[in-house]
Specification:
The complex is a heterodimer of chains A (817) and B (70). Chain A has 817 residues and is an alpha+beta fold. With 70 residues, chain B is mainly α. Classes of the chains: A alpha+beta (817), B mainly alpha (70). Chains A and B meet through strand 6, helix 3, helix 6, helix 16 and helix 19 of A and strand 1, helix 1, helix 2 and helix 3 of B.
Amino acid sequence: MIRVESITIKEFRGIRDLTLDFNGKTFAVYGPNGTGKSGVVDALEFALTGNVSRLSGEGRGEVSLKQHGPHVDRRNDPDKARVMVKVSIPSLGKVVAIERSLKNPAAQVTPADSEVLEVLRQVEAHPEIVLSRRELIRYVLATPGKRAEEVQALLHLDQVGQVRVGLQKIANACEKQLGLLGTSVAQARENLLRALGITELGKEKVLASTNAQRASLSLPALTDLTETTSLKDGLATPSPAQPQRVPKAQALADIRGTREILAEICGNDTVERVIEVTADLSALIGDPAIAASVKREAFFTIGLEFIEVGACPFCDDLWDPNELKKRVQAKINHLKEVSQKRGAAEAKIAPLIAALRKVRAAINTMVGYASISTPPLAMKEAREYSGHCEIVIERLLTLMPLDETVTVLTTVPTIPPAIPNSIKELEQIVAALPEPTKQDAAREWLVVAQERLENWREAMRKNKAANEQAKMARQISDIYANSSDKVLARIYTNVEKEFSSFYGFINREDEDKFVAQLIPSLGKLGFDVDFYGRGFFPPGAYHSEGHQDSMGLCLYLALMKYLQGDNFTFAVLDDVLMSVDAGHRREVCALLKKEFAHTQFVMTTHDPIWLRHMRTEGIIRGQSAVQFRNWSIDQGPTRWDARDVWTEIEDYRKGSNMRAAASLLRHYLEYESAELCHRLHAPVEFHGDAQYQLGELLPPAIARMRELYRRAKKAGNSWNQKEIIEQLSARETGFAKLASDSNAEQWQINVAVHYNSWDNLAKEDFAPVVRAFRDLLGGFTCTECGEYLRVSPDRAPAEAIRCECGKTMINLREKSE
Amino acid sequence: MPEAIPMTTSFALKGTPDVPTQVFEKFLEALKEAGASPELVARLRKTLLEDKKFTERALKEAVLAEEPLP
């Protein structure tokens, strides 16, 4: 995708003003703790993604990017906190400038053509290009559920998970609906049986019962009962003028049925269930935290539904939709316990809702008879009670707020006293009706039976459709789960193979047969690793912390390789591998070189040895490193940059601050001498604590340089290369003069004497000392590229002295060799 | 005048395996093999792969549309 050419950071985190030239190459940022390395990492992440993960997300408390991103002295002026990066896009052959300020994190891009913006959007969508040790270890030591989340976030599987949950919920909702429809079917069946005067719904019994009535009307008997058969087939349709009459027998049967239904709702079963549910809900209400959580859970669940664009549906603030969804989902997950309690309460309430629906239907039937009775009966209380039942049903379905639900629950088993009285009154009116003729009774029977048969058929049809819908929704959900499991299993198999190969390579001396298992199941991701052929165990069980660190890096690299393939061209590794020992770090370098030759890494470290490994293994070359020496709140990081250091020394000297000038010169020479000894393979008296003074490093470096020139001349002589010998003699003489001028070699007698004496020099006398050392260091460099010379190969007998640019190449091998 | 990058949802990298797309394609293929109606498959394809909507509401419309309860 991209390579970073340079970065300029102003008033951002602990940095005041800093420019680093990466030149699209792997780059190291080295410095002791607290010198500003992480500021560079944060600035890179901010420039490329508009965010700093260290300052956002879970567990960051009151810390925020906008408030705490600017330098502390610019905290009220976020516009001054700016990061500019230049990135090259190899696929487009373009170099692009990106600038963001903390006041307005939207990227300002130049040039901003559509192809460039598309690439930058891709980069913005992949914050995982920055990996810190904190994040790295989460892949290894996390619980299976948490690890699955981490890996899924890296692979952008949140959408996959969201669809899975959505389809499951739809299937569950469809199945839940079946319960309610089942109740309707049962109720319609009861009404039909009552109308038919039979106790079981069978074709023969229905036909026998119906044909008996039809015979009274001289209608032909029905021979079959199909889905479209009308029980009243052939019956003359009553003229519109004919008043509707109460079917006496049916009405009396329905009145008896209504009494049974009312008795049921007042019965012990209902009362006990109401008491049980009331206690459950009261417990939820009694705990204010849980009660609030129930409300919040409902709020978040509804809110999640509305997140479709880049804004919060509640406050309209701009958000990354995925980040917002992740946050809301996390809150919902935290409320799972509450969800379960709510689900349990809803399950207990469901039969009460079904019973109330039966009551309401029965009362409505009574009201219907009353309206056509003679004289008409108002049944006002019954109408009101029916309305009340509807309100209670709605409240129980909604459940929230809980206190209102508890209040209406108490009314469920209670029937207003006026209801039985009005039913009794209706019964008396119906009973007083003259007995219909046999033909009239048969006609009424057939009309009511047909009406109820149609109601039952309709309820059955709805129930059948709902069943099919639920079956389909469940099948879709299952197919999705199965498909995603298969795809993910394939991905994990690939990642597992790459991971094992990477880790086995790093540890090939004793774990070359290493294998690992990524085991996905039900949204979790198990991770077991082989321990020397003794079996598979979690990484934290037997492997050392250092091994776990390298496992984290390998898993990250395997995932990134799978995810981005050839587009994995840039990553920031922030202080990773600090627990990995020197030998294995060397192998990590080899792995990066072998498997990720086309990826530009920006790596931070506080360990100078790790920095040297990166150099000697060829991960970083030439100027591709910055070394911070200290940090101050006013200046930000100060780097070991030759130009800056000599200027600073000169400034101190001119200001007669000889103590500061001498101190800085000594520290810089110590730092550079260590690098020279390393590059030239100079023999230095070993110190277990790796602490060396200037007098213990610079003289061996000078002596080694001289020895190398001698060896080079000897080698030139063996090859009869007179011209080269002359050049080497000139170099040797020149270098000897530089060494002599600095007087540095005398320090081997007393390593502290010269440094202490510098303090006492007048500024005019210190100037030649500074010049002498500056020139001496120049004597170790290539005249073309300015880099220090080094002995090659790194860990074998010296064969040549060379530089990074290739201009300097001095042979050390004699012809006889 | 430099241009600001608008806020975006995550998306696949060109030429690299996009895991959600792989999963959705595999799902739609399996759904078709299981005998799902072409209309249902088309609706889900539009929701998941074209509109890239993953909310329960959007999925419900895709799964239950044209098969509402009578």
